[in-house]
Design brief:
Blueprint: H1 8-17, E1 21-25, H2 29-35, E2 42-45, H3 49-52, H4 64-77, E3 82-86, H5 96-108, E4 114-116, H6 124-132, E5 137-142, H7 148-151, H8 161-177, E6 181-185, H9 189-198, E7 203-206, E8 214-217, H10 219-222, H11 240-256
Parallel strand pairs: 1-2, 1-8, 2-3, 3-4, 4-5, 5-6, 6-7, 7-8
Helix pairs in contact: 2-4, 5-6, 6-8, 8-9
Length: 271
């Protein structure tokens, strides 16, 4: 598929025109090349790799070196999609200076076009400083996985009016600080709609209802690669977990039954 690279101004034009924005997570060059054959707008190299790729219970163990490594792999595989690099836990919270250095590595070494970090009002100054340094920055509020222990688990946020108002003010603060977009995760649909109408920058929802400017899913969830994981906000577009198991078992059966390789799948001497 031939198309122009997706830029920050192009994403804003989509919101202004009422066009929906699509984002998926991606962690390697193979999936990045496949996604380049679609019209996905953004690929997020999320710290969700800690759970999806590494097998951790949370995103907290992911390091900056690991984030740079996976971002670089995705950048090699993609020519058109906008690549967002996720800043892992404790790579930006200490100070704006720490955030700029960490974010700079994702752009300079990883090849990302922008970065994402979690938090609202409390992180606004960091977003402002990154933006002033020429680093396009995406916010992430609501259910923020790096605060899982503080929240008492992966729980929906903003159910009561006080908490909902706090999340709305977080979104406004991020916009005023220069964020080019904000992820809304794990909040009631009414709040997702309210924030999307209130701020001028694009909102991208995951478990935030139907009325955000765009949606993001973990690609492994979309493909059904983890058959035991299916929260209500995830729609599986394939059942590839079953396909992988069936293919691997067919291979085992063919090898043990001497059906692989066959006569056409071997090298022979010449001359």
């Amino acid at each position: 598929m031939s198309r122009n690279p997706v830029t920050v101004p192009a994403l804003q034009r989509k919101k202004d025109a009422g066009e929906r924005i699509t984002m998926l997570t991606c962690y390697d060059a193979t999936f990045a090349r496949l996604m380049d054959e679609t019209d996905i707008d953004l690929l997020l190299v999320g710290d969700s790799l800690g759970m999806v790729i590494q097998g951790h219970e949370t995103t907290l163990p992911v390091t900056l070196d690991e984030a740079v490594y996976h971002t670089r792999a995705v950048a090699r595989g993609s020519r058109c999609t906008h690549i967002v690099g996720d800043l892992p836990f404790l790579t930006y919270q200490a100070s704006p200076e720490q955030a700029i250095m960490s974010a700079g590595r994702l752009l300079k070494e990883g090849g990302a076009a922008s970065i994402k970090l979690e938090g609202g009002i409390e992180i606004a100054e960091t977003v402002r400083r990154c933006s002033q340094a020429g680093i396009p920055t995406m916010g992430h509020i609501g259910l923020t996985p790096q605060s899982v222990h503080q929240m008492g688990g992966f729980k929906v946020q903003g159910r009561d009016e006080e908490q909902a108002e706090k999340i709305l003010q977080d979104a406004i603060a991020l916009e005023e600080a220069g964020a080019f977009a904000v992820v809304l995760e794990g909040i009631p649909e009414e709040l997702g709609n309210r924030i999307t109408k209130q701020i001028a920058i694009p909102t991208i929802g995951i478990g935030a209802g139907r009325f955000t400017d765009g949606q993001v899913l973990v690609i492994y969830d979309l493909l059904g690669l983890d058959m035991s994981f299916k929260p209500r906000f995830v729609r599986r577009y394939a059942e590839m977990g079953k396909m992988v198991i069936e293919a691997a078992q067919a291979y085992c059966d063919d090898v043990r039954g001497r059906g692989f390789p066959n006569a056409d799948e071997v090298f022979r001497k010449t001359g």
